[in-house]
Amino acid sequence: MAAPIVSFIGRSNSGKTTLIERVIPELVKAGYRVATVKHAGHGFDLDTEGKDSWRHKRAGASSVVVVSKGSLALFADVSDQLKVEEVRDRFLDASYDLIIAEGWKSEGYPKIVVVRDQLGEISYASDGLLAVVSHTMIDLTVPVLHVDDVDGVAALLIKQFPLRRREHELDI
Fold first, then answer.
1. Can you tell me the mean pLDDT for 106-119?
2. Is residue 102 one of the residues assigned to a domain?
3. Please, which residues have CB within 8 angstroms of residue 93's CB and are 6 or more apart in sequence?
4. How far is CA 18 from CA 28, 44, 82, 151, 172, in A?
5. Which residues contact 164 (CB under 8 A, 6 or more apart)?
6. How far are the Cα atoms of 4, 20, 40, 97, 166 from residue 33, in angstroms, in the given order?
7. DSSP tag of 59
8. Which of 28, 120, 144, 160 lies in the 20 to 30 Å Cα band around 69?
9. Average pLDDT in the chain
10. Domain CATH for 126
11. How many structural domains comprise the chain?
């Protein structure tokens, strides 16, 4: 069974990354194996100039994979913007319990909107709205959590996406 996806959306510098960074340890403590997928709307370059992997990519390799004990990194050309489920299905194995996506506001993933002051800071598709996280209280029909209520955000995710038993943990 594929891991569910939840998207954290908000304008730049709204606190999405910080919130995700604070929620992950709470989910891990609850037994979740979490993967994150970050949308970089303006592109990015993670490889280090001069390193072998950079040199391979620069020489024309379409994909470069670097593997060491306990780590793997992939640098690959993609023809178009991938959806999170495409990333999950191509690159992540079935052992993950939850995928936290940062971005993809127009997709239909269940989402948590992170705002500083007011909900109108960002436009988004309202389908699948789980909660709003804000510095100020907003009157809505979905839960509104304070940006420092990390336990509340984690509890909401745990309730929405209950931990499932992995195949290798099933009693036979």
1. 84
2. yes
3. none
4. 16, 19, 24, 14, 41
5. 1, 97
6. 12, 14, 23, 5, 11
7. H
8. 28
9. 84
10. 3.40.50.300
11. 1
